[in-house]
Write a sequence for this structure.
């Protein structure tokens, strides 16, 4: 039914387009000077039909479900709901709906079958009603738009206003989604802090989110100090950057300044492929190759190494970040004007001196921005650490120990059967909130640095 | 003193040949940009290269300090000697050559560093100063030679990019002389400057002649006439005529030179 409604709308609005365009063409043929070309008169009719009617349809479809549910329930025989509470009524409604779809379990009471019949009928009526309203409304708008075709009617301005309104709407979607995410995180975090003291979360040195699921279960009380978890994230991020920053910078400098053009043409796309490898594949690589290698190397030196070390997860994450940093650096170096390069070379500077003393300082803002964005990626990275890092939060900065990260804890807290009113689950939202805040701060910082120093040369 | 176009007997006391080029060819890929150019450039003299756009004068200038090496597809043939040694000899390090042959570019290109560091950059990488005091002295001397000391002496640690266009260009000239070169190449040094800044730079070029051999590429024939003692006219990759400036502008030998300076080609 909905498809049919949309097809009808499309047909009517196309009709409006043709009508207006034809009318305007005729007007022009008769020798009148039009303000807007005929195409704009057509588009004006089309857009002013489609936009409001689509909004109407969407609103209708959103409201129709709950309204019909409510009519169904209020239409039940008097007294049949008296013995049920809110949850019970919800169950009855669900049963009625499944009967209406033909899935009947056992022998439902006659009043439920009646209600299901009415439910189906109401849906059919609503569908036809919608179609009727859409036809009337769109034809009405088309007719109205047709009467506005005139020599001095500013159809082009109308079209521009409508399209800029559409663009404004699209650009606000991302903003409102972000706000929605923040609100959701904040709401759940507040619920968490109602159960766990805020000081424990921020200053606690223990993270043991075991909470008894049932009253009679014997389990630890649970401890929710985020410091060891966040420390784990920091250790892994530090290991990753320790690998990615020098390798990424040097490879970008080599490719940009020293590599023969043929090598560059080959190596740059390969580096970019590295950026496209799914992180779950990096995760495989970490647990199957890197972690055993580190372990056996440690064993040969007589150092005890735990099976899932921060070093393994961090170094693989570092490999993931190399193309990120090198492509930012490469862009920043390429953006340095050629005249600066020539100026340094003409003074008798070697290529290395030119890069180090002239190009690099000029490119610093872009490079720092890239590194900060890489940091926020490392902090938020999930898949590699879920596969390769540990689960136990330990207060250590030794990269050969097993550590856990904020993202790993969020995943493990939310996997499996969880009830959404105990601190164990809500802790995930508090952690998510903190992750969001930290990466937000880093991103803002990165943007500020990039903006502030962008015009340092030229 | 500025030279006057009408003066034929110029101050061209016999001086030594500084650069000797013989049968120089330059190719950009398949394009033959410079054809059989032979020229002797004198010491302590301003030599101007003039000619229409694309005639190869900048390309030839860039051969003299091997800046064409930085262009992958450029190939230089022939023989260029500075003080009797072949600069394209494999034993010559282009980095050392460029320290001896300074260059100033068309567009001022100060580094995004302080004025002081802009000047000190060359002396630092070539180890010309052993102490901070020596470096300070080199910076001051270079800025004085660049005729910009009085304007910047109170703000040596502000960025060089904050100066005006004419000041930036004089800063770049000061930067080039700071490495104590023997030859100074200037590739249209005034084309991005206003008339006042141009006059300042031209005065400066005349000053520089005392210590250096200066080669200047210019689009402006008036400028060539004002600042140079010798002028070379390039056309389509050929060196058409190379004589004393006064003669070339008053009594050109080649009909192409005459057409160009009278405004009929170019």
């Amino acid at each position: 039914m909905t498809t049919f409604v949309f097809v009808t709308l499309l047909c009517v609005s196309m009709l409006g387009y043709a009508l207006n365009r034809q009318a305007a063409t005729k007007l022009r043929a008769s020798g009148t000077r039009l303000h807007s070309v005929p195409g704009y008169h057509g588009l004006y009719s089309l857009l002013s039909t489609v936009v409001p009617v689509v909004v109407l349809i969407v609103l209708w479809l959103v409201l129709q479900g709950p309204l019909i549910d409510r009519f169904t329930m209020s239409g039940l025989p008097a007294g049949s709901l008296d013995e049920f509470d809110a949850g019970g009524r919800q169950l009855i409604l669900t049963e009625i709906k499944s009967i209406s779809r033909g899935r009947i379990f056992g022998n439902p009471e006659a009043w439920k079958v009646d209600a299901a019949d009415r439910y189906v009928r109401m849906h059919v009526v609503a569908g036809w009603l919608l179609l009727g309203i859409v036809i009337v409304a769109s034809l009405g708008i088309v007719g109205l738009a047709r009467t506005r075709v005139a020599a001095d009617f500013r159809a082009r301005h109308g079209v521009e206003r409508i399209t800029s309104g559409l663009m404004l709407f699209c650009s606000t979607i991302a903003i409102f989604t972000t706000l929605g995410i923040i609100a959701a995180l904040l709401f759940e975090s507040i619920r968490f802090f109602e159960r766990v003291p805020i000081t424990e979360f921020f200053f606690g040195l223990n993270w043991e989110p075991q909470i008894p699921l049932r009253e009679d279960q014997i389990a630890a009380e649970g401890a929710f100090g985020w410091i060891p978890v966040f420390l784990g994230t920091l250790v892994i991020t530090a290991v990753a950057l320790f690998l990615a920053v020098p390798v990424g910078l040097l490879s970008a400098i080599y490719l940009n300044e020293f590599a023969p053009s043929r090598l560059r043409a080959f190596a740059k796309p390969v580096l970019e492929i590295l950026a496209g490898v799914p992180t779950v594949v990096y995760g495989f690589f970490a647990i199957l190759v890197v972690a055993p290698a580190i372990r056996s190397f440690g064993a040969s030196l007589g150092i005890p190494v735990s099976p899932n070390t921060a070093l393994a997860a961090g170094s693989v994450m570092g490999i993931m970040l190399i193309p990120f940093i090198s492509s930012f650096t490469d862009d920043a170096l390429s953006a340095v004007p050629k005249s600066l390069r020539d100026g340094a070379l003409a003074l008798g500077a070697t290529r290395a001196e030119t890069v180090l003393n002239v190009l690099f300082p000029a490119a610093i803002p872009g490079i720092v921005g890239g590194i900060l964005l890489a940091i926020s990626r490392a902090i938020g990275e999930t898949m590699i650490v879920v596969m390769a890092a540990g689960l136990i939060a330990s207060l250590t900065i030794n990269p050969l120990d097993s550590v856990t990260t904020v993202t790993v804890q969020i995943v493990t807290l939310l996997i499996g059967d969880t009830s959404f009113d105990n601190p164990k689950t809500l802790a995930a939202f508090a952690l998510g909130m903190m992750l969001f805040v930290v990466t937000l701060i880093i991103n803002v910082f990165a943007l500020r640095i990039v903006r502030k120093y962008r015009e340092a040369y030229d | 003193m500025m030279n006057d176009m009408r003066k034929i007997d110029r101050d061209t006391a016999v001086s030594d040949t500084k650069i000797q080029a013989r049968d120089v060819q330059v190719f950009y890929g398949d394009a033959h940009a410079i054809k059989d150019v032979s020229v002797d450039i004198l010491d302590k003299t301003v030599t101007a290269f003039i000619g229409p756009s694309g005639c190869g004068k900048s390309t030839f200038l860039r051969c003299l300090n091997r800046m064409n090496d930085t262009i992958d597809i450029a190939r230089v043939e022939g023989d260029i000697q500075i003080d009797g040694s072949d600069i394209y000899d494999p034993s010559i390090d282009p980095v050392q050559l460029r320290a001896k042959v300074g260059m100033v570019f068309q567009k001022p290109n100060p580094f995004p560093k302080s004025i002081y560091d802009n000047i000190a950059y060359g002396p630092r990488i070539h180890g010309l100063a052993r102490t901070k005091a020596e470096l300070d002295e080199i910076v001051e001397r270079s800025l004085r030679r660049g005729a910009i000391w009085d304007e910047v002496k109170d703000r040596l640690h502000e960025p060089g990019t904050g100066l005006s266009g004419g000041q930036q260009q004089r800063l770049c000239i000061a930067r080039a002389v700071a490495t104590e070169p023997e030859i100074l190449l200037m590739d249209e040094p005034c084309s991005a400057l206003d008339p006042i800044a141009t006059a300042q730079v031209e005065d400066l070029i005349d000053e520089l002649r005392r210590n250096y051999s200066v080669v200047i590429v210019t689009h402006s024939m008036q400028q060539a006439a004002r600042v140079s003692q010798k002028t070379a006219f390039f056309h389509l990759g050929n060196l058409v005529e190379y004589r004393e400036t006064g003669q070339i502008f008053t009594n050109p030998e080649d009909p192409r030179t005459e057409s160009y300076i009278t405004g009929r080609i170019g």
Q: What stands out?
A: Chain B has ten helices and ten strands. Chain B has a mean pLDDT of 87.
